[in-house]
Amino acid sequence: MESIKQPTSCSNCGSADFAPVSPSSGTSYVLTTVDQSTTPPSFLATSGLPVQVFGCIKCGVLTFHNPSLRLD
Question: I need a labelling partner for 57 at 20 to 30 A (CA). Which of 3, 15, 38, 64 fits?
Fold first, then answer.
């Protein structure tokens, strides 16, 4: 299978003003789920998917990238 490259332009508007959104030093972003059947809703700590986040300066769209994402 061919390796997927990190995005270099916005998938929404095509702008090259597209760059990583860096978290604080020593941390990373995780896409997770929330249990909305509780009040207040609670994050499900075991459901996280680590992601790199990229943002477009032109249109404001955020794109998530996970190089190890696979369908099972």
Answer: 3
Domain residue ranges of the chain, discontinuous segments joined by +: 18-65
Who contacts 67 (Cβ-Cβ below 8 Å, separation ≥6)?
3, 4, 6, 52
Long-range contacts from 4-8, C-beta under 8 angstroms, 24+ separation = 4/67, 6/52, 6/54, 6/65, 6/67, 7/54, 7/63, 7/65
Question: Tens of pLDDT along 11-43?
Answer: 899 999 999 898 988 898 999 999 999 999 998
Q: Which two structure tokens, joined as six digits, stand for 6? A: 């990190």
Q: What is the pLDDT of residue 4?
A: 56
Radius of gyration of the chain, Cα coordinates, nearest whole angstrom: 15
Q: How far apart are CA 18 and CA 56, in angstroms?
A: 4
* Partners of 27 in beta bridges: none
